[in-house]
Write a structure and sequence with these properties.
The chain is an alpha/beta fold. The chain is built from 21 helices and 15 strands. Helices cover 38% and strands 12% of the residues. Its EC number is 3.6.4.13.
Length: 609
């Protein structure tokens, strides 16, 4: 079924890297008016680049392979044409059939995509039925849901394959297939499931592959599912200073904890933050550590029940929590195969191939290692595709082990044209394994990984700069860090992990049963409660005067880095103008584009909190 590519396969305009964004409106794309109402309800002013390029091609019936950066609006780019096509079909036929299958790598993402369908189809809900196959319902319930032939089925490849095997899901009338996060689905170990889906795919199904990077995995999927796809490689033209400001801090293993304490206690980061750590224990170690200073956070990892995970993300998006500590475990399980070419290398290969029409390089077989999912949820993923809203900062407390992961992680901030910041802690080789209690295996090659990241980012014109903490000033806090770390023993971590799991399982059961009937009550369950280590040291919650640098926060960082602003692009001009008008009315100066630098606005009075 795999086809050899030649240059004619790729239509010239689509294969070009598009540099600029033309003024296109959703209405000009020819979408159903009910969909336009749904879009307007979400306050989308105009299509993003990937939307304005991919939607017309998809509406024409073309296969599309689109690479666009994280947070650029790929979900709407594939959903809108699908819903439009369902609405069109309903005008001539009322016979129910499943005409679209959307495959995503994780259950969280499946939930998110299902919600997006519901939002876009809010004004035509009775004509568009979508179901999420990753929900934990009994086989009988799932069968009965599928028996009604919902228009759109959203699933992980594993769930789709399972239901195809049991004949619960019929692809007989399928017209559209989407593989979202196409660069990641194979690394989740779904290769056999995807082969299984490909086997029963009827002829002529339109395929859309969406991806943040073009990797050999995307090539494999293209060979398996696409016919003559239009290839979009989209680089958004960014204004200076927009996107993610990337910083790196070289530090010792225990200093990661010290810096985290200083960053959060002195509020060096303004806004919401996702902290990525290397494994599950690390989540609890850091949470317990921060708790000692009165800094609350909630945890996301593959061990927690899916309902809790989804709830945490929803609450975070509603600004209930400021800090999420997430473990990025797929790396630890070995998904980041060293021998596998990095995305930038593969992109070069793809470019070459498009120019001279040569056959593509043999895509590496996904390694067996990837199937190793332990007892954790294989369909878990937070750095991939989850739409965390208004994240000011991604803190790589533990550096990922590949630049591809780094790209996905930092893509959780600066979404939909906002700005954001990424700080990565890097342990130099000579400091690795020098502080056993805070050491983690994945830091072994931090410097090598950083070099790759810097190279990769440079290719897209982005810099990774040092974040200069004045370690002399930070040193004043070292004693307190030591005190707090000593209380976070291995036993305390293990107990906290068990306790949290038990609590979340109970909440999850409650969530499932109770909130089906009372969706409004969800906010009563908080996930950032204190885990309480054995030794409670309440004095640590306060920062005494003498510890603070005389110059305020700027004394800690030198004052020249660290801006984290949430700024909308021109897409939100109207909103900005409204805000400015409102502010004028209140006599305040707002909306003039003045950036608030949290490092320069440290209020000494608020510090003792
Ligand atoms: N046209 C638009 N105008 C304003 N906001 C938009 C628009 N399209 C999408 N968004 C918002 O942008 C955010 C990111 O969108 P989405 O999750 O689809 O990005 P993505 O490209 O799929 O990201 P990732 O690669 O991380 O999965 C969402 O909050 C979405 O609601």
């Amino acid at each position: 079924m795999k086809r050899k590519l030649n240059a004619d396969d790729v239509p010239a305009p689509a294969a070009e890297v598009v540099e600029t964004k033309e003024e296109i409106t959703f209405a000009s794309l020819g979408l159903d008016s009910r969909l336009l109402q749904g879009i307007a309800k979400q306050n989308f002013q105009s299509p993003t680049l990937v939307q304005s390029k991919a939607i017309p091609l998809a509406l024409e019936g073309r296969d599309v392979l689109a690479r666009a950066k994280t947070g650029s609006g790929k979900t709407a780019a594939y959903l809108l044409p699908i819903i439009n096509s369902v609405l069109k079909r309903k005008q001539t036929s009322s016979a129910p059939c499943t005409s679209a299958l959307i495959l995503v790598p994780t259950r969280e993402l499946a939930e998110q995509v299902t919600k997006a369908v519901e939002s876009f189809a809010a004004f035509c809900a009775k004509d568009v039925r979508a179901i999420n196959l990753t929900q934990r319902v009994s086989d009988a319930v799932q069968r009965s849901l599928l028996a009604d032939s919902p228009d759109i089925v959203i699933a992980t490849p594993a769930r789709a394959s399972l239901n195809i095997n049991t004949s619960a899901l019929s692809l007989e009338h399928l017209a559209h297939l989407v593989i979202d996060e196409a660069d990641l689905v194979l690394s989740y170990g779904y290769d056999e499931d995807l082969q299984n889906v490909a086997k029963v795919m009827p002829k002529g199904v339109q395929t859309v592959l969406m991806s943040a990077t073009l990797t050999s995995e995307v090539e494999t999927l293209k060979g398996l599912f696409c016919r003559n796809p239009a290839v979009l490689k989209l680089e958004e033209a960014e204004d200076e200073g927009e996107g993610v400001s990337q910083y790196v801090v070289k530090c010792a293993e225990d200093e990661k904890f010290l810096l985290a304490y200083v960053i959060f206690k002195l509020k060096l980061i303004k806004g919401k933050c996702i902290i990525f750590v290397g494994d599950i224990d690390r989540c609890y170690r850091l949470k317990l550590f921060l708790e000692q200073f009165g800094t609350r956070s909630c945890i996301l990892n593959s061990e927690l029940p899916v309902n809790s995970r989804i709830h945490v993300v929803e609450e975070f998006n509603k600004n209930v929590y400021d800090i999420i500590i997430a473990s990025d475990e797929h790396e630890v399980l070995g998904d980041e195969d060293e021998s596998k070419p990095e995305s930038d290398d593969v992109e070069d290969i793809v470019d070459e191939e498009n120019e001279d029409g040569e056959a593509k390089p043999a895509a590496p077989e996904p390694s067996k290692k990837k199937r190793k999912t332990a007892k954790k949820d294989k369909e878990y993923g937070v750095s991939r595709g989850i739409d965390f809203k208004n994240v000011a900062c991604v803190l790589n407390f533990d550096l990922p082990t590949s630049s591809k992961s780094y790209t996905h992680r930092i893509g959780r901030t600066a979404r939909a044209g906002q700005t954001g910041m990424a700080i990565s802690f890097v342990v130099p080789a000579e400091l690795y394994r020098k502080h056993k209690p805070t050491s983690i295996d994945s830091a072994k090659d931090d410097e090598k990984v950083l070099a790759k990241i810097v190279r990769h980012q440079a290719k897209t014109g982005k810099e990774v700069n040092p974040y200069n903490f004045d370690m002399k000033q930070v040193d004043a806090f070292r004693y307190r860090m030591g005190d707090a770390l000593r209380a976070v023993t291995r036993i305390a971590v293990r107990e906290a992990r068990t306790r949290e799991l038990r609590q979340e399982l109970m909440k999850s059961e409650k969530l499932k049963r109770h909130f089906e009937e009372n969706p409004g009550d969800l906010h009563h369950l908080r996930h950032d409660g204190e885990l309480r280590p054995a030794r409670v040291q309440s004095h640590l919650k306060h920062v005494p005067e003498y510890l603070l640098p005389r110059e305020g926060k700027t004394g800690i960082t030198g004052g020249n880095v660290g801006f984290v602003g949430i700024k909308k692009t021109t897409e939100n001009r109207i909103r900005k103008a409204r805000m400015a008008n409102k502010a004028k009315g209140r006599g305040k100066k707002l909306g003039g584009g003045r950036k608030l630098d949290p490092l320069k606005t440290f209020n000494a009075k608020g510090r003792g909190k």
